[in-house]
């Protein structure tokens, strides 16, 4: 548990970002300020079986474990959640909004889930509808739409299009115009890295060691080279470098990270960020790696806090009428 002992405002909202493998729960006070945060190790994968009743009980127990004492102290406190908890395999399916779509999510867009202690409101995901001729592939996101809302709320107003990149297991590249998500794309870069390093030959080649930023930069250069041999070939090339004594086995994970991120950036940058202002939102260390990948292409990016989801949930709760907008103030906007 992390408590903000400097903020004495009363609690206003329980907010959760509940994903596939993890959960973050915030107790928010006036203006969406974080009073308390918890990170239980329970995501969608923590539920067992396909039986809806047993899955419901598992989610109720996990929610009570994370937030039960907050609810006991303030039974009328509204609660809202985003992420995979609203998927078909989650607590209750919350549906999708189809792009292009406004980022003001209203009461009619939320899915109410009754539970023994009250009601949890689920934020819908967003989808890109595939084109009938196959020219535009479909795509989906859950949770990232709320991070985007929070990130935009933390920034001074901006004119013109904006590209928001959310690095992670399934990285998102979203184009935002006039406070609307126009389109987005997903890259499974984080998951690919995890699979390659945990279950492939590269994982057996690597050894543990300290972080090697030089090896990461070297991987970026390899992954950005023109003409490219393609990601599968460049990944296997990492093993050859180790066998030839040209790369320390302890540096292999950082090198592979650079190759994968470089490949993602080189393919998605022309489609989603050409000439746009770029904003990176998420884990600070991972955002810095993506910023380095963008600099290879001469692109600069701003970075906003990993806790943007909490501010996004606060904004959605206000727009949906779960909170009185006059009862508290919005946090001061960051200066970039």
Task: Briefly say what this structure is.
The protein has 336 residues and is of the alpha/beta class. It is 35% helix and 22% strand. The strands form three sheets. A seven-stranded mixed beta sheet has the order 1-4-3-2-5-9-8, sandwiched between helices. It has a six-stranded mixed beta sheet with strand order 7-14-13-12-15-16, with helices on both faces. A three-stranded mixed beta sheet has the order 6-10-11, with no helix packed on it.
Description:
This protein has 336 residues and is of the alpha/beta class. It has a domain of 152 residues: Nucleotidyltransferase, domain 5. The protein contains nine helices and 16 strands. The strands form three sheets. It has a seven-stranded mixed β-sheet, with helices on both faces. It has a six-stranded mixed β-sheet with strand order 7-14-13-12-15-16, with helices on both faces. Strands 6-10-11 form a three-stranded mixed β-sheet, with no helix packed on it. It is globular. The N terminus and C terminus are likely disordered. Pfam families: DGOK. Keywords: Kinase, Transferase. This is 2-dehydro-3-deoxygalactonokinase.
């Amino acid at each position: 548990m992390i408590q903000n002992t400097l903020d004495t405002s009363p609690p206003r909202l329980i907010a959760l970002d509940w994903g596939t493998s993890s959960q973050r729960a915030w107790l928010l006070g006036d203006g969406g300020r974080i009073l308390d945060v918890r990170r239980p190790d329970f995501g969608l994968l923590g539920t067992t079986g396909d039986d809806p009743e047993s899955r419901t009980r598992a989610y109720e127990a996990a929610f009570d474990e994370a937030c039960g004492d907050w609810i006991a102290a303030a039974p009328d406190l509204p609660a809202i959640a985003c992420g995979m908890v609203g998927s078909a395999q989650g607590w209750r399916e919350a549906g999708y909004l189809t792009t292009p779509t406004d980022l003001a999510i209203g009461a009619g867009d939320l899915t109410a889930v009754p539970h023994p202690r009250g009601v949890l409101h689920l934020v819908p995901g967003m989808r890109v509808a595939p084109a009938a001729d196959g020219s535009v592939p479909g795509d989906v996101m859950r949770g990232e739409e709320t991070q985007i809302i929070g990130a935009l709320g933390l920034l001074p107003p901006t004119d013109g299009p904006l590209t928001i990149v959310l690095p992670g297991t399934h990285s998102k590249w979203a184009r935002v115009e006039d406070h609307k998500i126009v389109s987005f794309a997903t890259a499974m870069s984080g998951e690919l890295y995890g699979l390659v390093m945990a279950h492939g030959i590269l994982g057996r080649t690597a050894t543990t060691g300290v972080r090697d930023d030089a090896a990461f930069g070297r991987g970026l250069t390899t992954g950005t080279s023109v003409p490219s041999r393609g990601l599968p070939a460049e990944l296997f090339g990492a093993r050859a470098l180790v066998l030839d004594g040209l790369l320390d086995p302890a540096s292999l994970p950082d090198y592979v990270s650079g190759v994968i991120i470089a490949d993602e950036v080189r393919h998605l940058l022309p489609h989603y960020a050409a000439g746009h202002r770029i904003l990176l939102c998420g884990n600070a260390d991972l955002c810095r790696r993506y910023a380095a990948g963008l600099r290879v292409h001469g692109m600069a990016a701003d970075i906003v806090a990993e806790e943007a989801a909490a501010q996004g949930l606060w904004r959605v709760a206000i727009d949906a009428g779960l909170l009185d907008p006059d009862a508290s103030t919005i946090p001061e906007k960051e200066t970039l």
